[in-house]
Amino acid sequence: MGAGDKMKNAADKLKGDAKEKVGDATDNEDLQAEGRVEESKADLKQATEKAKDAFKG
């Protein structure tokens, strides 16, 4: 996994976390759900990249 990929995944996770927290603060269930989905996608991308790295090594 390249450093750029790691940084993008981390940024996506933070963005999702921020959306979820704003949704919590404003009682906006749609924003909460959108944030959770973005966090999950970032986690999945990171896991996929780690699996690729494991097979390369």
TrEMBL record:
SUPFAM superfamilies: Hypothetical protein YjbJ (SSF69047). Residues 5-56 form the CsbD-like domain. Residues 1-57 are annotated as: Disordered. This is CsbD-like protein. Transmembrane segments: none annotated. Gene3D superfamilies: YjbJ. Belongs to the UPF0337 (CsbD) family. Residues 1-24, 33-57 have a biased composition (Basic and acidic residues). InterPro entries: CsbD (IPR008462), YjbJ_sf (IPR036629).
